[in-house]
Amino acid sequence: MIPGFDRRRKFADLSEQEILALAISSEEDDARIYRMFAEGLRADFAGSAAVFEGMAKEEDEHRRQLIALHQKRFGETIPLVRREHVSGFFARTPVWLVENLGLDRMRSEARAMEQTAERFYRAAATKTSDAETRRLLGDLAAAEAGHDNTAQELADKHLDPNTIEAEDDEAHRQFILTWVQPGLAGLMDGSVSTLAPIFAAAFATGDTWNTFLIGLAASVGAGISMGFTEAASDDGQISGRGSPIKRGFASGIMTTLGGLGHALPYLIPDFWTATTIAILVVFVELWAIAWIQNRFMQTPFFRATLQVVIGGALVLAAGILIGSG
């Protein structure tokens, strides 16, 4: 393909047969995505999985109606026309990414799918002069618009208040185990473990640039180490802590950020200005850790403060004393 030259067809240039073919392939894709949603949720969110399975069956029925109309008007051979063949046509989340979506994201993605499908059918209905085709496309647009009601009916059938509450609790638990817990561990490690070497280097050398380089190396090295350690320590299959890759990224990134927070001020050439700002950043980091522990891990704020702020202050003091000696 020539760079910058889009060889896809414009929607306005599609024939009525090609529009039907595009609608058929789109319904197939949507049903497949809903079933992937359902499969990904079945183990932990059986009620929501049943809702998505019901929505997939709705898409199957739409596809059946479209195929029947195509057979009647154009015969058995359906042209291969897919979303990616049409310029400006709405996209769908790739199926291989579905396993990385949480419950709330799946629900919002489903709503967006129905809204874009409705717009497509309304636009398609204006391009056909055949009364039967126009009627079916209009009916499908109305059906997609009414899928919120269908989804609600399915939800009422499969999701009683206790089930919804249990699923929301499980989703929150997964969020804590997959993102907050490893991220918090990384932030604590990066913030506290790098205090002594950074401030020891600062007071030993009095050189802000070398102190920054030492802090950068310590932060990045600790981030890589923590990320790989978290990812390799538990595959999540038995513990239910979620994807090791997600946990590894959360831990590694937060470890690096925790160390960089008080290393970056040493980009300032003046030693005492840089050091004063770095110490202030340290206490902000430590209080943030205590707040996260209290907010997400239900650790009493006083205990979290005692563990993190006082412990961090002792490490900071140790680094300054060692560097000054």
Briefly summarize what is shown.
The protein is mostly helical and 325 residues long. The chain has helices at residues 16-41, 46-74, 103-125, 131-145, 147-158, 161-193, 195-205, 208-233, 244-263, 271-296, 301-324, and strands at 9-10, 86-87. It folds into 2 domains: 9-159, Up-down Bundle (Ferritin), CATH 1.20.1260; 166-324, no CATH class.
Explain this structure to me?
This protein has about 325 residues and is an all-alpha fold. It folds into 2 domains: about 10-160, Ferritin, core subunit, four-helix bundle (Ferritin, Up-down Bundle), CATH 1.20.1260; about 165-325, no CATH class. About 75% of the residues lie in helices and about 0% in strands. It has helices at about 15-40, 45-75, 105-125, 130-145, 145-160, 160-195, 195-205, 210-235, 245-265, 270-295, 300-325; strands spanning about 10, 85. It has a two-stranded parallel ribbon with strand order 1-2. Helix 6 runs parallel beside helix 11 (about 300-325) and helix 10 (about 270-295) runs antiparallel to helix 11. It is elongated.
Tell me about the largest β-sheet. 2 strands, parallel
The helix content is over 70%
Major sheet strand order? 1-2
- Secondary-structure element pattern, one letter each: EHHEHHHHHHHHH
Binned strand content: under 5%
Q: Termini distance?
A: 66 Å
Question: Which stretches are low in confidence, meaning pLDDT under 50 for 5 or more residues running?
Answer: 1-5
Shape: elongated
Number of domains: 2
Q: C-alpha Rg, in Å?
A: 28 Å
Mean model confidence by pLDDT: 83
Structural classification: mainly alpha
**Helical segment tally?**
11
Counting DSSP E segments of at least 2 residues, the number of strands comes to 2
